[in-house]
Amino acid sequence: MSIMTYRQALRDTLGSEMRRDENVLLLGEEIGVFEGSYKITAGLLAEFGEKRVRDTPIAEEGFTGAAIGAAMLGLRPVVEIMTINFSLLALDQIVNHAAKIYGMFGGQARVPLVIRTPGGGGQQLGATHSQNIELYYAFVPGMKVVAPSNPADAKSLLLAAIRDDDPVLFLENLALYNMKGEVPDDDIPGEIGRAAVTRRGSDITVVAYSRMAAVALTVAERMAETDGVDIEVVDLRSLRPLDRETVVDSVRRTHCAVVVEDDWLTYGIGAEIAATISDGAFDWLDAPVRRVAMAEVPLPYAKTLETAALPSADDVTAAIRQTLASVGRRAGKDTP
Amino acid sequence: MAKRGPAVRKPPGQPGPVGEDATTDDSQLREFYRRMVFIRRFEERAARAYTQAEIGGYCHLNLGEEATVVGLMSALEPEDYLFTNYREHGYALARGVEPGRVMAELYGRRDGVSKGWGGSMHLFDGDARLLGGYGIVGGQLPLATGAALAVDYRGGDEAVACVMGDGTTNIGAFHESLNIAALWNLPVVYVVVNNGLGMGTTVEKASGEPELHRKAASYRMSSARVDGNDPVAVREAMLSALASARSGRPFLLEAVSSRLKGHSVVDPAKYRTREEVEALRTSDPVAALAFRLRGEGELTDEAITEIDAEATSAVAAAVAFAEASPHPAVDTLFDYTYATPVPNDSRRLPGEPLFEPAPLPRIGAHP
Questions:
Q1: Does chain A have fewer CB atoms within 10 Å around its N or its C terminus?
Q2: Mutate to test the interface with A, among B337, B347, B349, B360 (most CBs of A within 10 A)
Q3: In chain B, where do the E strands start and end?
Q4: Surface of A (165-204) touching B: CB under 8 A
């Protein structure tokens, strides 16, 4: 084990995979000379050269599509889209091509492609640079979408994504890049399609992914101290395929759930999780599934408004308290 | 030149690829004629099957574009790659894909080139290096550019041909792709088949630069325009374009062609005037080549009739093959969602529940 940041885990993994397999190459805007907008690719141009670390023009549809075509011939491109907002310019290539080619041609062509891209607001970047639109990709069969919430998962899921023969959207988050954590030294790929119970608990289940899974874990630890409640945290990790069993299994044990997401509430990932809980744990539920999600506005620039619109640890804490209160399980040291 | 790819197959009842075996111009022309007639008869038969509801979805035909299709495909080496749009039956046939497997795909059958998953717009055959017909206008351009990147990355000698219609030259993916190919010196030829109409909209109403090949100038890319009704001219232009691409200079080739019928089988093309329709008849490349070959004494009326009969019979065999091929079994529905299996991949049919019904409610049973 080594302690490192989420950013370092990504950078080291890209480097080690490029050393392992010469078919792995990187494409994206400013990933070479500039070393990446968020410095994930720092040092890689120097080590691997322009052939394998390719600065592209600002043309998301063009270079993402080119990566798909190269993948069809057996290369394993890892594309960086500077933020997930700009992936909309490549939407046709991702949804109509990357996700369709394997099925549409009856399994004759594979697309071993990774699209790395960060989502997330909170940096005062305004309405077009702060979105969480991973749902658009998680909606599409043929895509795989992973969203690691800590440095160890960042490594293991990036390994899995690069070695997978299908297109994988690898969701990062601006607020996670500096997060530190233990990372295994060995290159052992994680499993796409599996959630993780990152904290065992018996009172309530909190389901989240990406940044909010980290927030949920922090809240759970704090509330164990402040409220004496024992919270179980399910980190989805994979948005497609979606590990419904792990979610339902947890709620069947805790009997109530709060679902937390950075995207908008209406039609969001949390809606799918809530529906899953309804399908699989209806008879075990003691309270309606509560959702914590972003306010339904284009995210404003002004700090007061931005902060108010984004889900916070306090929002999660309040939702947990209210849910527990509603079922009469006001857990805590002073509760009978 | 590296010959790594599998040879293009020569299916029974269909002439093989043109070029290598055409020793003289005359025999080459005769061979072109045979292949053009074959595509003509195949497409006419497809139109009939469509109106009989044997073929579903959309069905776009190469009628009127046979000289362009045959000329272009005769210039490709077996190991070269081909990306096309949705008007691609003729390209698959000219590339040597078995006509029965093409027809079976149109019929949505198990033995279709894409196993019934693609249909008319999405033909694919790895052996023929036909890497797909694509239904979204412009979608194939970035892909073809990336295939050329992969060839270049590995130091290969293959070229990539990317066929599109005239309307595609106005879309963003066209410009992004040409820009990237020019920047990176990729071995790709972009071919615009300009039949004058994007569905019902003329080139002049859709493109600020109606001389489409000139758009390459924005990227300092070489380009040319060729008479798409002359298969020999098309072949020669494509050979030059491919030679340029192989030397790291991508190329834009415009073949000026004509679409004899509507955009798709169901389009009666009412936007065309009587004069336009009449002009189309006189520019029919198949009839024109027959006229020329007969005038030059290269083909007798009997030979022309014989070529026609051969084509009709081969197309009938293709239809018989398609009709005999089974419909895909429903239990194969989830076979092609993912190439790498992963846990929790959904295999649920529409009416099935996500979870088994719960046991009777255990009211008050939990703490």
A1: C
A2: B337
A3: 81-84, 130-133, 160-165, 188-194, 197-198, 201-202, 222-227, 251-256
A4: 165-166, 191-194
Looking at beta carbons, which residues of chain A come within 8 Å of B342?
A: 144, 164, 191-193, 238, 241
Residue B351 resides in a domain = no
What pTM does this model have? 0.94
ipTM of the complex, rounded to two decimals: 0.96
Please state, in angstroms and rounded to a whole number, the distance separating the CA atoms of residues B229 and B285: 5
| pLDDT attached to residue B265 | 85
Q: State how far the Cα of B324 lies from the Cα of B107, in Å rounded to an integer.
A: 10
The answer to whether position B148 is within a domain reads: yes
User: Average pLDDT for residues A113-140, to the nearest whole number?
Assistant: 96
Residue from the list B143, B149, B355 with its beta carbon closest to the beta carbon of A97: B143
**Could you identify the residue written with the tokens 């390459």?**
B216
Residue B361 falls inside a structural domain: no
Question: Cα–Cα distances in Å, from A240 out to A171, A224, A313?
Answer: 12, 31, 26
How far is the C-alpha of A136 from the C-alpha of A150, rounded, in Å? 23
Cα separation of B173 and B186, whole Å? 16
Give the count of domains, chain B. Answer: 1
Domains and CATH numbers, chain A: 2-183 (3.40.50.970), 196-326 (3.40.50.920)
Q: Mean pLDDT, 10 residues at a time, over chain B (367 residues)?
A: 40 45 70 98 97 95 96 98 97 98 98 98 98 98 98 98 98 98 98 94 95 98 97 98 98 94 86 86 91 93 96 98 98 97 96 84 57
For A190, which residue in chain B has the nearest alpha carbon? B342
Rounded to a whole number, what is the largest CA-CA distance in chain B? 97
Residue B247 placed within a domain = yes
Spatial distance between the Cα atoms of B280 and B261, rounded to a whole number of angstroms: 9
CA distances (Å), origin B175, targets A241, B141, B179: 35, 9, 6
Question: CATH number, domain at B96?
Answer: 3.40.50.970
Closest residue, chain B, to A238 (C-alpha): B344
- Please name the residues between 211 and 270 in chain A that touch chain B, using a CB distance below 8 Å: 238, 241-245, 248, 255
Residue numbers in A near B180 (CB within 8 A): 56-57, 59, 62-63, 66
Alpha helices in A227-283 (DSSP H): 244-254, 269-281
Quote the domain boundaries for residue B237: 25-332
* Strand residues in chain A grouped as ranges (E): 2-5, 24-28, 53-55, 76-80, 114-119, 144-146, 168-173, 180-183, 196-199, 204-208, 231-235, 238-240, 257-264, 290-294
State the catalytic residues of A.
Answer: 60, 129
Residues B273, B252: Cα–Cα separation, whole Å: 31
The answer to whether B151 contacts A73, with C-beta atoms less than 8 Å apart, is yes
